[in-house]
Amino acid sequence: MPEWTQQQLEAITARNPEILVSAAAGSGKTAVLIERVVSLLLEGMQLDRMLVMTFTNAAAEEMKERLTDLLANQAAENEHLRRQFQKLGSADISTLHSFCKRLLQQYFQAAYTDPNSSLADESKQNELYTRAQNDALDAAHEDPTDEFDQLRAHFKETEIIDMSAALYRFLMAQAAPFEWLDNMTDPALFDDLYSHPWYEVVAREARLRLEGARDSLLDCEQICRRPDGPGRYLAAILDDLAMVDLLLVSLNTPQTFAGGKPRFARLSSKKAEATEDPELTALVKDVLRAEAKALINEALALLPENQAQAQAWMAEIRATLPQLLGLAQLVKDIHARYQAYKAAETLWDFNDLEHLALKALSDEQVRQEVVSSYDALFVDEYQDISQIQEAIITRLRGADNTLFMVGDVKQSIYRFRLADPTLFLEKYKQFSQDKDAEERLITLKENFRSRRNILQAVNLVFARAMRERATEIEYDDEAMLTTLREQLDDPPVEVHLLHQEEGLELSDEVADALDAVMPDVITDEEGAQGTPADELERAFVYEARLLARRIRELIGTPITDGDKTREIQYRDIVILLRTAASRANVLAEILNNANIPTYSDTQGEFYTQSDVRDTLYLLQTLDNPYHDIPLMSTLSSPVFGFEPGELDAIRSAYPSRDIPFHEAFYAFAKTSSKCQEAIARLDRWRLMAHTMPLDRFLSRLLRESGLYALAGAKDEGRLRRANLRILLAQAAPNPEPQNLSDFVERALRAKKQKAGDRSASLGMQENVVRIMTMHKSKGLQFPVVMVPDLSRGFSGKRFELPLLMDAQTGLALRQVNTRDRYFKDGFGVTAIRAKKTREEQSEEARLLYVAMTRAKERLIMVGTVTNLDAALMRWSKPEGDYAASAAKNMLDWVCAPLYEPLQRGAQGLVDMDNGSRFLIAWHAVYDLLEDLSRMARPLMDPTVPPGIMARDDFFQPLAPTLRIPQKSSVTALITRERLMQTEETPEVKRRALQPARALRDMPDLAGFQTLSAAQRGAAAHKVLCALDPKDFVHLEEEQMRKALTRAMDELLSRDMLTKEERASIQEADVLHFYQSDLARRMAQSGERHAEWPFTLLADSDMILQGVLDNCFVEDNAWVLVDYKTDWGEAAMLADRYRDQMRWYMRALREITGMPVKEAWLYLLRGRQAVQITEDEPIRLKETPL
Length: 1185
Hints:
Layout: H1 6-13, E1 18-23, H2 29-42, E2 50-54, H3 57-74, H4 79-85, E3 92-95, H5 96-106, H6 108-111, E4 118-119, H7 122-142, H8 146-154, H9 157-171, H10 177-184, H11 197-224, H12 234-250, H13 278-302, H14 307-318, H15 321-344, E5 347-348, H16 350-362, H17 364-371, E6 376-379, H18 387-396, E7 402-407, H19 422-430, E8 439-444, H20 452-465, H21 468-471, E9 493-499, H22 508-517, E10 521-523, E11 529-532, H23 535-554, E12 558-561, E13 564-567, E14 573-577, H24 583-593, E15 598-600, H25 610-623, H26 628-636, H27 644-653, H28 661-668, H29 673-691, H30 694-705, H31 707-713, H32 717-730, H33 740-753, E16 769-773, H34 774-777, E17 782-787, E18 803-806, E19 810-813, E20 815-817, E21 822-824, H35 826-852, E22 855-865, H36 868-875, H37 881-885, H38 890-895, H39 899-903, E23 908-911, E24 917-924, E25 966-969, H40 970-974, H41 986-990, H42 1013-1026, H43 1037-1053, H44 1059-1064, H45 1067-1074, H46 1077-1084, E26 1088-1098, E27 1102-1114, E28 1117-1124, H47 1130-1152, E29 1156-1163, E30 1168-1171
Parallel strand pairs: 1-7, 1-8, 2-3, 2-6, 4-5, 6-7, 9-22, 9-24, 14-16, 14-17, 15-16, 17-22, 25-27, 28-29
Antiparallel strand pairs: 10-11, 12-13, 18-19, 20-21, 23-24, 26-27, 27-28, 29-30
């Protein structure tokens, strides 16, 4: 039996009618809930008279499994438990939606719904809603009410559509949506501004700002009273303080509050004393008092100056009421039509499950029958419920059953899904800790997960960050985390700060490398749009490199695992991101470059991956050649390479709508050799599909079609190939052999339902560093947690819609001047925006809490400081509501309690008053710039998820090695530069191979614009790779010359060539190539690839990367072509580049599985082709290192 704490035992054994368990992170709340179920069963309660509601299917299944294990251990000696064990299969342990669905199928008459209805998928919901919205809009325009006339006079059609959709989604989370809507558009609500809920919101915001101003002025007073302070300013500061105190008092009587423009005291112009410190004077005058004045002005701008202005503001709001009523009418009509369209097709959506269940429970007879069916109700993750879910739970509660709710409001992070944490907070305040209370509160604060030092650090940060008036929650003594774990030598919590001053100038080379991996706009996963990529956004790249360095330092060091000590492995480490957009891929790339294996669960849905999608289209075409969309997609895929113009020609030849595309394609094939070749390949593969086991056929299809090879050649090739291997694994016997039709149908169904396998990185059970969002980490734990990007600003939704909505305070529309078409927020919009901004900031605090409490052994946090003085000023604020509310990012909350050591520039170990120990490390950005300009592509990992490949399969990976292979480019390997150059690029390839020479100082080439030989070679390379030989080889010389000139000028106009590059190209050399037999053969090939990157694991010792200039298929074998611009004799150049070409031949052969029949160097300067042959494949031992 586990050893329970006193608080856990009370939660298990207490029998109060209603119990709320506020369970801190790592306190074992799920174990307590399950143990409580078992304890009730031991007392004689029946399992089928319990209702356990969770919020995810995974949580419900986990609960069933754990309950099964517990009952199995005890049922052998207890007849009652044995009978309950037999009921587990039908136990009511499920999500709330599943319960609602069962309820509707039983009490459908009370809900006036069809019990045979099924859940509509997302695409069907969107289709029916859009139809309802369009029909409602058409009806409104045809017969407009006065209110709708007002609405369309003030807003564009697109704005009306967006507002109605947003309002509808919002209403569906309310228990009585249209009753709420009627109440919030009642004209009586808009009589008096001071009595409206908006005023309370705005007054609270104003008070926070005034308190912040007071704190700054108190700092000013303290400095002025110093012997070296500006004492001459003291009188003015005291006057300002008196004014702020008066304003704070007057906020308590709104009707008599006198706002307006504040009158600040004038600072004394008296000459400074000799002892006065100019820096302190500037601090008081230009920083602290300036901040106070700004806060006072902001506070007063929020509030009306007097009653006359309050009446004027409310009159402006009343002017928007007809527009609101018009929008309400439209949304009600949309709802009625949407419900009718769903009913006609016997469909429900998730909103219907909740609203119809609530409707059924509104029937008193039904409610009594359902309530009497359960003796005990359990709700897990109660902090994440919505208003309507709360209404359902309330109706299930009866006089003869009990309600047990468990959750942690500090981990409520799903407000964007319309969860309402205020419901938990209301009960937390309302319930009593008295043991005999009808409504009892029990707190679990003992943490069984993390080391003591991590918990003390969490307590230190959130005692300041979580304040009820600022971030909704008060982190009081009851919230403080404690532990019974007695461990010596706790590692410190690490805080790594990158110091990057604003305006840092980076070299062009480094800036280009950063731009390549950081997008122009960062988009938040919940829909909020971030700021343009600037130096702070780029700083994430530096942070990622710091993490890579720290991971490599940690691997192999000791860590505690239960009662024993072992070495840290990659699988022990997780990196938590606030948002995955752009960052996860950047982070994974940088870690891969450091040979650190990663797994990221942030990729998109499996079946939407382009390589999987192309394969599915091909399989659909083989299964049924008469489906037009898969056929067209297959023809335009890399497998056949039909250009849009070619497909358009097929359609244009048979323009009648009565002729489907597949008929046009087969008819067109009678005169098209390309179409005939495509049909022949499809027929051959179709025959194979019917005569071979499906998994063997799919393996061969991926090889012959080139899809697997192409996947490996693209960016993130390792992951793309892993996706195809997952698809291949699904084709294996299960347990009986599968056929093509069933496989395609199942894949399409999974794609439609978004229930497909997660796209691949490496498996979650592999020895890899995990990358995930803070949201997805909830409920998990990891030995080592790293939290970068703490300086990322809060999302700050931009409130683009003219409509703002809030469950407590109502609706507000921006005021529109119809003549000049300008918008004005008005008091209502200002109030709701302030409330929503505060709620979002509160959720950010809870997200940080979730992230920090995932750590078991080590917690490492990273942030970037762009303006140290401004940051220190924020961190110096005295602990209080304003300081918590003034945070600009998570780093502010982390660093505020560390202000004292940070302001004195502390490095290393720091012991804090509450017993926590931190390691503070400052890093200069320039220390992390090494190799940023040569960011290589992710490597092909020698391992794959286990158990999905046959041993003799073409795709079987190379055997894993115990040591990490070194990495090099082919060019670098040949030139003995492996440690300096890890990625081959066209520029590197153009560099002539020369014997090694002693290094010498670089000359100063500032202002020298002539292109180097490598740059001129790269320019010629661009042209030869960008142009299609089919466009030129058939032309006479003069026509070819003119066509080439036009083509290269077009490349210049499209910025594919610079002016210098265009001028450097010798057109005669390019022309001579297109007149060659090699170019004609290339043009005739049905499959050709230019500038094709590859990654090859060579002899388990070296990972080679390279770029193939050109290769094409001829007689089912490859012909390899590499362009060279060197001067020299053909024999000498052939000898110089022989090993390089042999490596290219080996890579092409091993990666694609097809033979290489010929390999050619084409010497542009010499205007001749030189064939390279090999007696046997090249090996590393032949290449001197």
